[in-house]
Design brief:
Layout: E1 2-11, E2 14-23, E3 28-32, H1 39-47, E4 52-59, E5 62-63, E6 74-77, H2 89-99, H3 104-117, H4 133-145, E7 151-155, H5 163-180, E8 183-188, H6 191-197, E9 200-205, E10 208-213
Parallel strand pairs: 3-8, 3-9, 6-7, 7-8
Antiparallel strand pairs: 1-2, 1-4, 4-5, 9-10
Helix pairs in contact: 2-3, 2-4, 4-5
Length: about 210
Amino acid sequence: MLEVRDLSARAGSFEITEISFEIPTGMYGVLMGKTGSGKTTLMEAICGLKTVTAGTIRLDNGDVTRLRPGERGIGFVPQDRVLFYNMTVRRHLAFGPTLQGWPKEAIEERVEELATALQITPLLDRKPHGLSGGEGQRVSLGRALAARPEVLCLDEPFSALDEDTQSEIGKVLKQLQASQGITILHITHNRSEAERLADIRFQIREGTLDSVAK
């Protein structure tokens, strides 16, 4: 479960204030709001990329509010994906487990498992240059999932994808949710996208959570 209580955080002169919500374990939550409403600031605070000024963030394993990003058990896919041009897809998928000191055999097994689930096995020895938008997004998802996080955070994951690819990646996400029991927080301003994917929806306006709707 992801539980946020009375959370406040700042990004420059902009501040989100007293945000509270929870997403039960294995559920798909979608956070909606206009550009500039505070969606990304909230997600980055949850992931440890923005300083929390008040409140708490809890996962099933306890309070993670003051932990470093890599210690939180949260996978993050930023809006621009940020793939490393000099690393193969295989190395992208191995990145998190390697940092966490997994045994080599366990890393290799996890890479193959994710590549199969995301249908990117033929891409494992390629580098990001030349990958399509959908392929790149699958690699980003795999990298975020590789170390088996409790929560997956997605910042506008469909923004640079065509309609067919959006549908394709949406199906992949729902399959991963079902097969791996992962809790997901997904940012979008697209209502139809939210209705298609969400188990629970949240609305943020001008830095404050406005409503929660199932």
